[in-house]
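step 4 of 6: structure.
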Amino acid sequence: MTLTSEQLNKIVKDYIKKESPEFKDVEPTIQDEERSIPHEVERKLGLVHPKKTPTKVKVFTFKKIVTAEDGAKIPIVGKVTVDAKTGKILKSTGN
Amino acid sequence: MNEEFAKPPKGELTDRPVPQAVAKAKAAKVAAKAAARAAASRKGKTVLIINGDDDIHFEDDQSVLAITSAFQNMGDEVRVELAKDTSYSTWSGYDIVVWSCGDDYSAIGDVNSMQMLVDYVTGGGRLILEGGNIAGWCKEFGAGTIPNRMFREKVLYATTDWVYHDVGDLKLKNTHPIATTPNILPETIGFTPTEPGDGSGDANALRILPDATGIYNWSYVAYNDNLVKESVASISYGLIACESENGGRIVYYAFDIDDIDSPDIQQKLIQNSADWLKKTSNPSALIISSKGQLIDKYGEDAFNQIEQKINDYIQALNNVGFSGNLIYVDDENCLSPYELIPVDPKDATKIKELIDELDKKLVPSTFLILGGHSIIPFHIIDNPCGDDGDSQVYSDNPYASRDEEILIPERALGRLPDDSSTNAAFLISLLEAITSRIKRAKKSSFGLSAKVWKEASEHVYDTIKYGETLKPSPPVLNNNLKIDWINDKGYFYFNLHGSEETPNWYGQEGSRYPVAFSPDNLANANIENAVICTEACYGANIIGKSVDEAISLKFLEKKAACFVGSTKIAYGPSSPPSTDADLMVLKFYERIKEGHTFGEAFLRAKQDFAEETIRMIGSLDGTGKKTLLEFVMFADPALKMEEIE
């Protein structure tokens, strides 16, 4: 059964609260991302048997601007990729 | 200049010299003709044929006889040795070495043979490798050992994908001199394996690395009587050619040559291969800049100084067996010898197209962009993970790609940037630095990471540490960082925050973002010849920056040999496994430690990055694509690090 947007949102927010608490009060933007490898990339790398992956994932982006101790504004971004069907966290990355 | 035979009549000469630009264009044409004459004069070479077919059915194999007769028919002097008797120290005395395995199923299975072949081709040797199961054996029994990996990558140029045995006829896939010169080979070469579809060792169908050329693939590829998908078969090759780093060339017949149906075609293929291998192929560097932009920014006098330094650099290249071609993208005199026309130096797309044409005509081994964004612009590409605050990404990837697919580069390319000042001193100092061709640095390192990323950073830092420990920030800050930690270090690794507003890099603990590293930290440091990689956001953002406004430029001013970083927001995980920027730096340093040139290491790091990302998550996601695009290298790509104790 496919999870609803609300359910996915809760899974990711719970994850962020635990792993990257600096984003706990940030409302994420959500993008659908198609998981595929461009044919030309496959050709260049000589790959034809990529690992099978969910074709549809959602990427939750948490973004805020923080002020460093010297006054500089620093953009802080966290991205969590989740399987749109199962809610499994596939990747977490940030800057 | 040679004196003319007789003086012309008085009054016919002016006192004006031939314009410098015209003289240069003429000199380029003369050099091109001389190179052609030199290539034509290379006949009657010495060839060592090593018989590596030592399986129990070796007596049915005629490969060595076919190869010997082809070379003798060309007037070459041939010596044949058994693989077990050959002495590597003698190989350099031959113009071409042939290692023939015929249908030996367990071909080149020992570490010594692999190592000899790796050393030979990476040292500039010319090799024909013949055998129907070399790649298959390497794949099935070599496992992940380092000698096997080096052999696979540097001699076979094979990927880690499955190798098939059951094949049809050879089918022409890519036009290459080996298929056309001097003999035009047919589109289809009839091939009949002695024992098709089994472990006979008659043929392999293998997938190859991007820098190799697959010349012939197979009319079909099968496994247990089932055809392999066309998408796989079409990129599974039987005849492969590649050029290695130091002018080495390899022709790899992934088949038993005596199984080619026509003895005449056997001979012609060997002749074409020998012809290609014999041709002069000194490694060469293509140096790309803009005369108009340099003059506009620095003035004529400074431009002349810059050009003199470029000429000194080219002379230094010549002294180590490299040739250098300086091309101003907007200068007709530079381009007319190649029948090319100038382009707008502000148009990155047109410059890429010009580089593509120059690549075809000059076949350079490395590409050096001379100048920053105001001289030769970065490509400005829509951000593939668009909602992070960067609408666009500055990238050199298109210049490093041979086609319109720009994520995976195929050229060893670096940039020597200038700064925002109108004083050319900085650029001139960088040219002087690369004119010194020896880059020795100590086996030592410095690593600094935001405290919150320490665990992930340690995984990356492991590749370059020599007993040092990664420093976390905080508590390490720019105002308590000891100069002894950075003085005389060979390798630097930074995983810190960055900002577009200041030159500083920042640590993090909770919601605290202190200054961890600033240009001032380098003011009195000796970091000559060091290699630096940073994951800091905007770590390689140099647009409109002076030396004191960008740590990257400060490192270069202090004579670092190589700086790798990101032009925009860069990503990474908080714990292993490494992804995104962490993975890019990890792969780059792995390649540097293997002894590659900076250009080769950066090129392969991006290829490795893409392969590993796809292996991990099954695709290239938005941050993966952005990482590939935004990481740039400021270095002479032909240089390499020599470690000293």
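step 5 of 6: annotate
 - The radius of gyration of chain A is 16 Å.
 - The beta strands of chain A are 29-34, 56-67, 73-83, 89-94.
step 6 of 6: archive
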